[in-house]
Amino acid sequence: MSEHVFITGYKETNNGLDNNSPAFTRIQPRYSLMDYFLKYLLFLCNLVFTVLGLVILGLGMWGLISKESFAQEKISSIGTDPMLVLVTLGFVLTILCLSGCVGSLRENCWLLRLFSALVLVLISVQVLVAILAYTLQDEVGNYLRSGMLAAMVRYQDDLDLRFITDEIQSNLQCCGADNYRDWEINIYYNCSAPGVLACGVPATCCVDPLENGTVWNSQCGVGAQQLDEFTAQSVIFLGGCLGGISRWVEQHQGLIGIKNCLMLGCQIHFSSGATLSQI
């Protein structure tokens, strides 16, 4: 009995039929260099962001667990915990990028469609947020003011809010939400408080928080609220952080716009059907 081998590109006959006829020819997909480039570019990008998402998710969960945020007496305030933002961001980033990573590597059409749909939803949310932020600038400002005042109230009790507040004040050289007297809202810095911090401000409000240029002076803002503005300006920053944030955005709006356009362009490119069809 003769053995029949069917290989595309060779002409052999079997009962008079050409092996290259549609009945016998195997149609193999042909990939170009661009196809392979897009496939592994999408895989590597999503792999990096999957790892990043897992790291962010892990940090968020570690923060919640270390502060015992799931305890019965603290569970009611978990919605305002900044660690919850990291958990949400890490979870969404991991699910999104993992679908793109596995889908591109395994050439799984279902996962690639899921990835494309999730990216399109993300693009829509970003555009919607940008439009709302532009049209509702006053409301956004009020929301930021409320958020910062809430962080100042819990400044001594929540280490995460304290860290965020200190970073904003030291980097933007500001104090409080609107001005340095906003710190009276905190029970420890209120002028009626019994402790040494009464009528003071945090050290990150100080113009020079280092004593002799080397040692951190945590008491440099003590009694600052009792000073008039002319005297206080040599000790602490008088301006509020809301104004500092507005100035920072105005100074860097060109760079922010370019960065957002590049990110949006990459998302649109990788979510387009033309790109996914080449993988």
Please tell me about this protein's structure:
The protein is mainly α and 279 residues long. The protein folds into three domains: 1-30, no CATH class; 33-107; 139-248, Tetraspanin (Cd81 Antigen, Extracellular Domain, Chain: A), CATH 1.10.1450. Helices cover 56% and strands 3% of the residues. The protein is built from nine helices and four strands, in the order ββαααααββαααα. The chain has helices spanning 33-66, 83-106, 109-135, 137-153, 159-172, 229-232, 241-251, 253-271, 273-277, and strands at 13-14, 17-18, 210-211, 215-216. The strands form two sheets. Strands 1-2 form a two-stranded antiparallel sheet. β1 (13-14) and β2 form a beta hairpin. α3 packs antiparallel against α8. The longest helix is centred in the first third of the chain and has 34 residues, at 33-66. Residues 1-17 have low confidence and may be disordered. It is a multi-pass membrane protein. It comes from Sphaeramia orbicularis. InterPro entries: Tetraspanin/Peripherin, Tetraspanin_EC2_sf. The chain crosses the membrane at residues 40-62, 83-105, 111-136. GO terms for molecular function: enzyme binding.
Short descriptors:
mainly alpha; 279 residues; 56% helix; two-stranded antiparallel sheet; 3% strand; elongated
Rg over CA atoms, rounded to whole Å, is 29 Å
Instruction: Determine and state the CATH class of the largest domain.
Output: Mainly Alpha
The proportion of strand residues reads under 5%
Overall tally of structural domains:
3
The percentage helix is: 55-70%
End-to-end Cα distance, whole Å, is 43 Å
Task: Supply the helix-strand structural class.
Answer: mainly alpha
Please tell me what the overall shape is. Answer: elongated
Strand order of the largest sheet: 1-2
DSSP helical segment count? 9
What oligomeric state do the depicted chains represent?
A: single chain
Can you tell me the CATH architecture of the largest domain?
A: Orthogonal Bundle
Major beta sheet summary: 2 strands, antiparallel
Name the CATH superfamily classification of the largest domain: Tetraspanin
Order of helices and strands: EEHHHHHEEHHHH
Would you count the extended β strands for me? Answer: 4
Enter the CATH topology name of the largest domain: Cd81 Antigen, Extracellular Domain, Chain: A
> Mean pLDDT, as a whole number?
80
Query: Which residues form runs of ≥5 with pLDDT under 50?
Result: 1-17
